[in-house]
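Reopening: Kinesin family protein still failing for me.
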Amino acid sequence: MNVFARWRPLAATEALLEEIDRRTDSNSRSLTSVSIKRRASAEDRPWTSPAAFNAIFNPEDDNDKLYNDAVAPSIPRVLQGENCSFFAYGHSGSGKTHTVIGYDFQESKNLGLCLRAAKQLFDAFNDQNSCQGLGVGLSLFELRRKTAFDLLNNRTQCFVREGPDGKVHIRGDTEMLEGGKVRVRAIVQQPCWNFGSFQRELVKGLEQRATGSSSVHDESSRSHAFLQLEIVNQSLVDARNALFDRQSELVPVGKLATDIMMEEDAKSVIRGQDGKWVPNPDYQKDQTRIDTIEAKKARCEARVLAAEEEIEAIIESGSTPCLGTKLVFVDLAGAEYYEGNGFQSQASKRTLQERQEGRQINSDLLALKEVMRAWSQSQKRIPFRSSTLTMILREHFTSTSKGNSTIIVTVSPAAEQFAATLNSLKYASLVGAVKP
Ligand SMILES: Nc1ncnc2c1ncn2[C@@H]1O[C@H](COP(=O)(O)OP(=O)(O)OP(=O)(O)O)[C@@H](O)[C@H]1O
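Support: Ran it again with your exact input. Result attached.
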């Protein structure tokens, strides 16, 4: 994995605070280690990371610099059809949102990494003949504990489940549609055909992130935010809609087939005197009824399969290698590091729910670290199932080549946040120290 660290500047309110003493050192493989201590005093012993970082960004480095060094090199690979993923890790207020999304949407150099990447993609679509008709399908959701909230669909609550196909699906409630169709809502993917509409959709969706919170920071740092960009064209969007429609037809037919089978099975047996189930001499299973519904179900399944094959065929058509390619940005919840780190007074103020959430976040982040390490070492068994976060990320890891996945750890230089900064740098260096 590529690993970068970014020091944010001290905020105006922190101007009088002492800064962490920090140094960097690069080895012959151009990998950097970072050495920090709480203050410049000679008695303070430094903590030094392994040479795990591809680069360390300083407080004066803006989003433009970070984008050019950490993300822009991936865009040609995305246009060649390689999936890429970027994770922002850091404690609350360390600069993850500033990095991934940004707060100034007017100045192109201040845009966050996700928006800059989308801009570069749209520029490439406009410049290259082979990319005509391409757009970006945006999905945006937040994972809090084990539940996902669709930010492009009024924070609809969605559940993360592993399907019989082994794939992880994020689905909302079941809706009854006209004609008896039953739809299980999937996470919305909003197709955007130019950068302006992409930015509007993203900003509108992100406004949902703060809903119901008295403090945006506290709320946002308790959830993981996923921003997924998939390269699409109109045929792919239409084919996905057709699949969705056919799945909606299949659900009630599949349920009816199961009900009929169970009803016929139940009628065809009776309990004998010894309490055991024996064939019912007065009832003959209605095989015609069963065959009719099974045939209808098979026709629906074939239509679903055909729609899936149509999607594959569109993606494989080869005219644009990047069709269906995904670029994923994850703004991870900040680790909770209160207990045992000199934050007991803050820890004691937290509610039971906050403590439970904190434990869940820590266990998600631990699971992610283990997955990243196992994946970087190409281990046979990668523990994706150990948390909902890693279950969702399985598809991204299994479809992403090494070198196309990046973690950016954001850190504060304020000495009073030393414990959190140390925690974040240790996390990133453990991931980055594993090089294939
Ligand atoms: N590199 C930077 N340059 C300038 N300002 C920054 C930088 N990083 C962060 N900031 C500022 O610091 C404040 C906190 O940053 P931000 O909201 O990005 O933190 P966060 O890690 O996303 O927090 P949370 O997890 O709580 O949402 C913001 O006002 C932001 O503009």
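The CA atoms of residues 409 and 428 lie 7 Å apart. If you still see a failure, please send the error message rather than a screenshot.
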